[in-house]
Amino acid sequence: IPRFDVRISGQAFGASPYGDRLATVSRDKVRVWDARSGKELVSLPTLGRAVRGTAFPPDARTLAASRDGDTATTWDLASREVRSDDPTPPGGRELAFSGDGRLRAV
Q: Quick check: 67 and 48 in contact, CB under 8 A?
């Protein structure tokens, strides 16, 4: 198993369903890494709001993040564009996708 060290702030961490991608959160960025090589694949801005949780759908083409417990943002990883920015229940931090990736739960 390859090993690489990434310093994270402890705010959030996530792995894709097949373990080939990792998401880490720092104060101002959400980063997606190739788990085998340790290479950073994508860097996304947190838009000035703390990220509390991350989740990949089964196809790992997008990444969802709960921000400040009141918003769930989903980015398209190829284009780095926000696909959706939806309100969440107060205190909502954890995210999950359905098996087919069509539904996101907070």
A: no
